[in-house]
Structures are given as structure tokens and as C-alpha cells.
């Protein structure tokens, strides 16, 4: 007969086992180390399905991926690459070769797919996959016609009703507040020092700001990079501030092209000003709007944009088929359709549940449309369908963070923002940083969304110092970029120049 005294240690051991992560080598089909030379490890962790239900034993399984420290590990850093709704593990794995040197090589780097994303309790708004796909494809541009915005508003009402009818219990437990609790559950399961080390990009900064506000005493080191205005995210009809410098950055495509010269940017060969090139681009967009050209769906990188303008507006050499064959393409196929659809649903489930504003009718939302259009000509329409759906959202979340973002964390937060980021402006970093006592904003004089898009030896030194010993830069510090737009060089060149161990660098 087993005594109660004998049983207690056994129960304690079982409880501990449920809260630990067993790491094993990842399936190479998922994380192929031949293309990204990092020996990824994978693991799972069961966390509460509903943190507000204290009597429920229902669990949710998180899927995690780890890039082990090449040096002796000082602990783990958790990452969130953005979204909401994107495949965090997949996005993290592609950037891991850059993140390892940036963190000094002496931390394990970990990411997990947030609840609601990929196959972690994905939101189902329709039981029929065909209807799911139609819902995704009906997210059309609101300015496509005179009635486009009103049609999209009606689409948002139908979508929100469908999600409420079919989501089930999952629809109410995928908020950022719950993901923040998941982060802390992972920290506890790692059984290190009980402190959170976190680097969040884009929406990951909203997650980081939220977890820091909910658990300020658990913050050891935290970088919030490409900063969303968390106040608008939770409390505005739309994220207006995100797009305030988008048009300015669109213009920079052409000014940088002239600076780069024709050897790097073919549009510079036409002896035209940057303003004339941009005008030609807008005229081309207006023509295509009324007379569409079937050319596929390209990832709009700067070289892609100028190459298309060269061919379509100036009659440059090379058919579109050649361009399409040499550029990254987003294809909607039977294989990736579920991922695309689930990502759109996850965006709704997370953002709409987080946002605490509801609008009763189209007329009351119309001023927000006007504001978005006037804020940015190039990006003001980009997320209109999401905003309209969220304003009519019907699922009541179990928990949404409603507290203050005036926070004193145990250790200060480092904010990073590219000066030339067309998605999250420098202004947003300062807006959020102002509420976090002792925090500092590092400005990077680079282009793109997030510091990893702007290679800089100064950023490397500053970030290394922060992870090593918590050293913050002086207020007002601005790091120069080491790579100019249209140049082929990237982080590996910066790392080599800084003497980073060559085995950490992805030379692809």
C-alpha cells in the first residue's frame, strides 16, 4: 500500500513534468537546417485553455521552436515576429541566423505559434472550407468603386456574425492578454530564473507592451522593435498612426533610386527627377485600377516595384513573364490556401477581440475612412476590411487588457525604431515609450519595417550590450545604416566586419 507521505513526491514530480518542455530535434520538413543552418529544436507545452476558468482542467498545447545558443547559454529569449495571425515559428526560423549574432550567441532563442494562429486552436468562421475561402477572398479594396466601402462594411457584418456562430469556445480565448499569460507560462516551464526576456516586432511590440504591463515585475530584458501605437490598437476605430509616413516612404523608393544610380536601379537611367518617376508610378497605378493587368501576385520589394514600373510605364526591356519568374511570388494553391485563410481569421479573432471600440453603423465609421485615406494615399486602404469587421465583432472575449500603459518594469525596456519605417513611424515608439519608466528609444537611420531590415554595426553593438548586461543607449542615440537601398549587401557583411563568429552567419 502506498502511503500519502510516499505519494506526495510522486505527485510533485508529475506536476513538474506537465510544466516542462522536452526539446527534440525538429522535423527537417518543417525547419530545414540545410537552407537555414541552425540546429532547431522543437517542443510542446500544455497551458490553460482559459486562464479565467479556475475550475477547468482543459489545456491548450503550444508548439515551440528553439535556436540553441552556440555559446554557453545565459538563458532564453522569447520572440514574437508580428501579425497578429502570422505563423510565428516559421517567420522566426527564417530570421534566426540574424537574431543569433544580434543577441550575442549566448542565449537560447525561442518562439511559439500564438493561440489562434496556424493550428493552435485556429478560429473557424465557417464549417465549409469553400465558404472560408470566399470570406478570405472577399476582402477587397474599399476604394475599388464608389460603393466599395459600403459593400465592405456589409461584408464585415456578415463575417463577424459567421465567426460568432461557428468559432465555438476558441473564439473567446485568443486575445493578446491570454498570449501574454502564455509567455509567462513558457518562462515558468523553462525553469531558469523566472524572468522574461523578450524581443517583439510590429504586433509583437503590442504583445510585449501588454505582458510588461500585466507582469512588470517579471521583466528582465525586453526589446520592442517597430513599435505599434498600443493605445490606438486597443482603443481606436483604426490604427491611424501606423500609416502617417507611408507616403513619404513611397516617395523614398524613387529618391533612393536616383541616388543609387542606373547600375543599381534601372529607373535612374531615364534622366527624370524622383518626382517625375513617382508621378509615372501613380499614373500607372491609376491605369491598372481601371484596366487591370493579369501578372500574378508579387511580393512588393523595392527592386520589384521599380522593375515593374520600368517595364509597364517606360517600356523597359524584358517581358513581365521574365520578371515574374525571377521574383518571389505569392501563389494561392491548394497547399497554402488553409494557411492564408487561417491567417486572415486569426487576425480577426485576435485584433477584433482586443480592440475595445464598436461602431453601430456605416455612417459612424465613415469619418475613420476619410481619416485613413487622408493619412496615406498608398496605405490608407490596406486594412479597411479588418477595421470594419472588428467594429462589428460579436464574440465576447474572456479577457482583454483594459489597464494602463504607464508602467514601471523591474528592468527598463529598450525600444527600437527605424527612422524610415513606412508601417510603424518613429512617433509611435516615443508615444509608447513615454509610459514605460526608464525606457529609451534607439533610433536607426534605416529603411524598412524593424531593425533587422536595416543592417547596422551600431545596432549590433547596442543590442549586444543590452542583452549582455542591460546597458541602455543614451536618450536620442541614432544608429547609422551600413547598407543603402538597392545595395546587395546585408547583415552577413556587417557581422563579418564586426568579427562575429563565421559559423553563426547565414551566407546564403
Number of strands: 10
* CATH topology heading of the largest domain: Rossmann fold
Total of helices: 17
Name of the CATH superfamily of the largest domain: Alpha/Beta hydrolase fold, catalytic domain
Which CATH architecture of the largest domain would you pick? Answer: 3-Layer(aba) Sandwich
User: N-to-C terminal Cα separation, in Å?
Assistant: 63 Å
Helix content: 40-55%
Q: What Rg do the Cα atoms give?
A: 24 Å
Structural class label:
alpha/beta
Low-confidence stretches: 1-17, 295-299, 326-338
Order of helices and strands: HEEEEHEHHHEHEHHHHHHHHEHEHEH
Family: Belongs to the peptidase S33 family.
Domain Peptidase S33 tripeptidyl aminopeptidase-like C-terminal: 378-479
Signal peptide: 1-19
Protein name: TAP-like protein-domain-containing protein
Topology, element by element:
Layout: H1 4-18, E1 24-25, E2 41-48, E3 59-67, E4 76-80, H2 88-102, E5 108-112, H3 129-137, H4 148-166, H5 176-190, E6 196-201, H6 203-214, E7 219-225, H7 230-235, H8 246-260, H9 274-290, H10 302-314, H11 320-326, H12 337-354, H13 362-375, H14 384-391, E8 414-420, H15 426-433, E9 440-447, H16 457-469, E10 478-480, H17 491-498
Parallel strand pairs: 4-5, 4-6, 6-7, 7-8, 8-9, 9-10
Antiparallel strand pairs: 1-2, 2-3, 3-5
Helix pairs in contact: 3-12, 4-14, 5-6, 8-9, 12-14
Amino acid at each position: 500500500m502506498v502511503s500519502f507521505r510516499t505519494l506526495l513526491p510522486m505527485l510533485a514530480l508529475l506536476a513538474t513534468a506537465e510544466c516542462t518542455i522536452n526539446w527534440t530535434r525538429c522535423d527537417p520538413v518543417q525547419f530545414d537546417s540545410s537552407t537555414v543552418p541552425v540546429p532547431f529544436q522543437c517542443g510542446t507545452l500544455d497551458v490553460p485553455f482559459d486562464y479565467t476558468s479556475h475550475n477547468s482542467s482543459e489545456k491548450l498545447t503550444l508548439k515551440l521552436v528553439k535556436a540553441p545558443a552556440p555559446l554557453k547559454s545565459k538563458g532564453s529569449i522569447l520572440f514574437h515576429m508580428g501579425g497578429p495571425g502570422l505563423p510565428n515559428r516559421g517567420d522566426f526560423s527564417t530570421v534566426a541566423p540574424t537574431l543569433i549574432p544580434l543577441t550575442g550567441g549566448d542565449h537560447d532563442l525561442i518562439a511559439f505559434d500564438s493561440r489562434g494562429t496556424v493550428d493552435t486552436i485556429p478560429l473557424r468562421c465557417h464549417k465549409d472550407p469553400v465558404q472560408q475561402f470566399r470570406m478570405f477572398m472577399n476582402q477587397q479594396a474599399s476604394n475599388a468603386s464608389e460603393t466599395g466601402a459600403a459593400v465592405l462594411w456589409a461584408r464585415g457584418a456578415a463575417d463577424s456574425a459567421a465567426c460568432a456562430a461557428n468559432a465555438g469556445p476558441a473564439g473567446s480565448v485568443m486575445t493578446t492578454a491570454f498570449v501574454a499569460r502564455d509567455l509567462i507560462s513558457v518562462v515558468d516551464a523553462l525553469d531558469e530564473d523566472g524572468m522574461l526576456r523578450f524581443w517583439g516586432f510590429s504586433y509583437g511590440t503590442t504583445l510585449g507592451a501588454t505582458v510588461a504591463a500585466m507582469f512588470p515585475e517579471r521583466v528582465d530584458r525586453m526589446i520592442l522593435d517597430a513599435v505599434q501605437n498600443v493605445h490606438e490598437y486597443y482603443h481606436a476605430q483604426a490604427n491611424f498612426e501606423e500609416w502617417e509616413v507611408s507616403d513619404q516612404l513611397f516617395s523614398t523608393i524613387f529618391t533612393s533610386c536616383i541616388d543609387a544610380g542606373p547600375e543599381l536601379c534601372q529607373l535612374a537611367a531615364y534622366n527624370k527627377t524622383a518626382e517625375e518617376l513617382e508621378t509615372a508610378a501613380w499614373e500607372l497605378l491609376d491605369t491598372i485600377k481601371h484596366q487591370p493587368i493579369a501578372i500574378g501576385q508579387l511580393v512588393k520589394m523595392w527592386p520589384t516595384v521599380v522593375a515593374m514600373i520600368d517595364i509597364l510605364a517606360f517600356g523597359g526591356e524584358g517581358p513581365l513573364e521574365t520578371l515574374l519568374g525571377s521574383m518571389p511570388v505569392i501563389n494561392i494553391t491548394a497547399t497554402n490556401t488553409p494557411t492564408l485563410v487561417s491567417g486572415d481569421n486569426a487576425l480577426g479573432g485576435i485584433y477584433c477581440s482586443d480592440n475595445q471600440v464598436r461602431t453601430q453603423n456605416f455612417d459612424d465609421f465613415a469619418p475613420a475612412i476619410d481619416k485613413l485615406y487622408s493619412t496615406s494615399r498608398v496605405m490608407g486602404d490596406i486594412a479597411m476590411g479588418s477595421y470594419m469587421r472588428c467594429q462589428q465583432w460579436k464574440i465576447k472575449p474572456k479577457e482583454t487588457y483594459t489597464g494602463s500603459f504607464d508602467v514601471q518594469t523591474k528592468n527598463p525596456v529598450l525600444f527600437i525604431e527605424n527612422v524610415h519605417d513606412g508601417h510603424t513611424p518613429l512617433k509611435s515608439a516615443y508615444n509608447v515609450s513615454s509610459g514605460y519608466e526608464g525606457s529609451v528609444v534607439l533610433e536607426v537611420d534605416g529603411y524598412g519595417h524593424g531593425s533587422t531590415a536595416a543592417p547596422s554595426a551600431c545596432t549590433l553593438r547596442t543590442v549586444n550590450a543590452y542583452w549582455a548586461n542591460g546597458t541602455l543607449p543614451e536618450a536620442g542615440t541614432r544608429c547609422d545604416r551600413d547598407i543603402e537601398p538597392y545595395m546587395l549587401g546585408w547583415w552577413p557583411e556587417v557581422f563579418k566586419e564586426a568579427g562575429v563568429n563565421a559559423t553563426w552567419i547565414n551566407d546564403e
